Amino acid sequence: MDYYQLRYLKKLSEIYPTIAAASSEIINLQAILSLPKGTEHFISDVHGEYEAFIHVLKNGSGSIKLKINEIFGYTLSNAEKRNLATLIYYPKEKMKLLLEGVQDRDEWFKLTLFKLVAVCKTVSSKYTRSKIRKALPDKFAYVIEELITERMEIDDKEVYYNSIIDTIIETKRAGTFVVAICEVIQRLVIDHLHIVGDIYDRGPGPHHIMDKLVDYHSVDIQWGNHDVVWMGAAAGQWACIANVIRICARYGNLDILKEGYGINLLPLATYAMYHYSEDPCKCFKLKELTDNAREDLLNLQIHKAISVLQFKIEGLLIQKRPEFGLEDRNLLHKINYDNSTIEIDGQIYTIKDTFFPTVDKADPYKLTEEELQVMHRLEQAFLNSEKLQRHMKLLLSNGGLYKIHNNNLLYHGCVLLDEDGEFRKIKWGDREFIGKDWYDFIDTYIRKGFFQIEGEEKELGKDMMWYIWLHPNSPLFGKNKMATFERYFVKERETHKEHKNPYYEYYEQVEIIDKILENFGLRPETAHIINGHVPVKVIEGESAIKCNGKLLVIDGGFSRAYQKETGIAGYTLIYNSHGLILAAHNPFTTKENAIAEGCDIHYNTVTVMESSKRQIVGDTDAGLRLKEDIKDLKLLLDAYRNGLIIEH
Rounded to whole angstroms, how far apart are CA atoms 346 and 303? Predict the structure, then answer.
């Protein structure tokens, strides 16, 4: 045994100071390895749709209904099972509705509690007692544990459990207890949550989603391009700030910034009202309108003001970073104001709006003194938003550009390919990257943008977040250009087209997907890719299952903005001990409708992969780590028994 190994074992002996302690832990860990694998839940492209997200989270994409069907089969009617499921999702609200038509409340509570205990017992069966205890609410921890634990030493178990439930009812705690046990079921039905990108933009509640994720028991996040642009804004990067505000204005969501994150938009609003008070801003129609015409007008003015500011700021950044190779995206200086045209890629097109009162035609990208002041104040507002910084900390600590978990590769966008299906070679300085190495390189620079104290590396890291938002070499964006300018101003629609990376032409080919999996160090014969970013157009017959099930695209239009194109409201994925199950969803109406009608947005499931035998913890990444721990503990036992380390 070498010096470093012995030193490590001595440190380990501080945690397990005796042979008995080390032996007990080995027994405990070995037992955990034999438990069924915990259920993983995959959700992608939530885009601020908080209520729909929470509903899917509460029902585990149909996992709770599945458990109810397994337990009660034909002993309950479909209506009773639907009511029980809705009660578990929304216990306070549904209980109030159900009790309105009940004559004997005590009897209802008794029957309901027995059903809930049966569900709770089933969903907790794959966990250790210590893990279950951590999930239980303090005020009812002992009682719930007693009800879901088999007590072999008790002769008349029915009397024992009846007595507990009768006491809960007699002490007038039944309603509170129903809520508590429903929340435990929600907590235990999903062991781990994966968010495969794009929490932000379009919908009104990304900050509420992030609040939920901050407190979620086990979650990882693969950054989407919309997440990264918010990260750049939170780091104070001006082009990212402008993009974030522009999208919020366009979708009528400036309240996310003002009320959600406490960001003061008054300097920008004052600037917008002054310069665009006489401008109809016809090219800047809002996706969502409020009930207040004055507020809509102000949002319209802010929308145009921040858009023009964005194009100026991006122009300066492109000049500052020639290594980004985005000179063709600078278009302000190509406008011909005399005949309202613009030159793009050597072609002349009609421009619909030439009213740019803050643009100096001789130096179109120069920021005025007023604009510099506005941007400095916005930068400080983003940097000093405590809530925004807390949410970004979660993205950084629990997130990354990709994740390998239990033989699945998770990423939001694409692995960049060339026209011939080979990995695109990205040149950066004197280095060249493909596939996973490029992901790792840009992930590092995102973190430098936050964690470097100061200097060029920090500034480059901040600018790289904007690069990742819209560059053709960004695996999160995956298109040849972001045609924001053209979509606003250029009449000819052919200029609006954004061509997707060849990845999307090749991802049905087994050899291509196998090559990607191998590049990330996975075994192609058993691994899968879980992919977000590009909505699956079910309405046109497109399937989320690609390449014979090797690749699953789970962006089916969670965002309402996409649902006309997709025909559904998103996909989610469940990976339990029996296999992979893809769930498709109907559009979410309202929480109130879900409670009153028992309506669910989950409408169809497809088993993508069915395991020949039930998977256990020992088959997972966590199981591999536990096996390493057992190996170390066995070495510690040998060291105790050989006298190399003394028990204490």
Answer: 29
Which DSSP category does 291 fall into?
S
3-class secondary-structure state, position 531: strand
Write out pLDDT tens, residues 500-510: 999 999 999 99
Sign of CA dihedral 126, 128, 133, 135: negative
Q: Which of 448, 596, 453, 519 is nearest to 82 (CA)?
A: 596
How far is the C-alpha of 125 from the C-alpha of 614, rounded, in Å?
Answer: 14
- Name 525's Cβ contacts closer than 8 Å, sequence gap at least 6: none
300 conformational bin, left if phi > 0, alpha if psi -120 to 50, beta if neither: alpha
Helix (H) or strand (E) holding 619: none
Convert the pLDDT of each residue in 242-282 to its tens digit. Answer: 999 999 999 999 999 999 999 999 999 999 999 999 999 99
If we measure between CA atoms, which residue out of 129, 140, 127, 143 comes closest to residue 35? 127
Q: Evaluate whether 337 touches 353 at the Cβ level (below 8 Å).
A: no
- Please give the backbone phi and psi of residue 426, each rounded to the nearest 5 degrees, phi first: -100, 120
Quick: pLDDT tens for 286-309: 988 888 889 999 999 999 999 999
Give the burial class of 573: count Cβ atoms within 10 A of its Cβ; 0-12 exposed, 13-18 middle, 19 or more buried: buried
Is 48 in contact with 588 (CB distance < 8 Å)?
A: no
- Kindly give the pairing relationship between strand 431-433 and strand 402-405: unpaired
Q: Where are the alpha helices (DSSP H) in 452-600?
A: 456-470, 484-489, 503-506, 510-519, 563-566, 591-597
Model's pTM, two decimal places? 0.94
Q: CA angle at residue 57 from 51 to 61, to 5 degrees?
A: 110
